[in-house]
Amino acid sequence: MKQSKKQIFRLGGIVTGFLNGLFGSGGGMIAVPILEYSGLDAKVAHATSIAVILPLTAISAGYYLFSGAVEVGEALPYLLGGLPGCLVGSKLLGKLSTTFITRMFGLLILFAAVRMWFR
């Protein structure tokens, strides 16, 4: 791998980790395009992004929990609701077309941007 690509991936990793810690898993918006740039198919890039973000999220969650910024009781209902959704989404990723996944990801980012712009 060329040195310039390695530097892009390192910088992308730093930005991904920063955004994940700051916004809570927002790093996927950086990780997915960088992984696609590296030549990965969109589905593989999304799955790889999740694998990269998992340890980053665990570290962020641990920090927030142990610093007292979040109480387990507040997070538990979301976690319990999120687990079934996570399983369904993981199974669907392999069955949906790359074009559909890419467009849905783009729509999600646009929705988040519009929602935040008018807050």
3D structure, described in words:
α1 (3-24) packs across α3. With 119 residues, the chain is an all-alpha fold. The chain has one domain (3-117). The protein is 83% helix and 0% strand.
Summed up, what is this model?
Helices cover 83% and strands 0% of the residues. The chain contains five helices and no strands.
* C-alpha Rg (nearest Å): 16 Å
The proportion of residues forming helix, as a percent range, comes to over 70%
Number of strands: 0
Q: Which H/E pattern describes the elements?
A: HHHHH
User: How would the global form be characterised?
Assistant: globular
Low-confidence stretches: none
The main sheet comes to: none
Task: Please report which band the strand proportion falls in: under 5%, 5-15%, 15-25%, 25-35%, 35-45% or over 45%.
Answer: under 5%
* Strand-pairing-aware structural class: mainly alpha
